[in-house]
Known about the structure:
Blueprint: H1 7-12, H2 16-30, H3 57-62, E1 74-75, E2 78-79
Antiparallel strand pairs: 1-2
Amino acid sequence: xxxxxxxxxxxxxxxxxxxxxxxxxxxxxxGRDIFGQGYIxxxxxxxxxxxxxxxxxxxxxxxxxxxxxxLCALRQGRQRR
Length: 81
């Protein structure tokens, strides 16, 4: 950080993927509310978002296979239906 005038300049020097990794690491180190309760800290690509209507009954009841690296849209801590 010493090489940058401020945090904004530092973040501007990073790629979107580097920023996502930085925020993930900060969340892991300092806890889920590091950016404030309910703060959205990660931008995801549309390809990472699961279509709930296309999930199998097993996936809905037992979770999505982690090798798929899909996320479900949430609203106030609950899955959107």
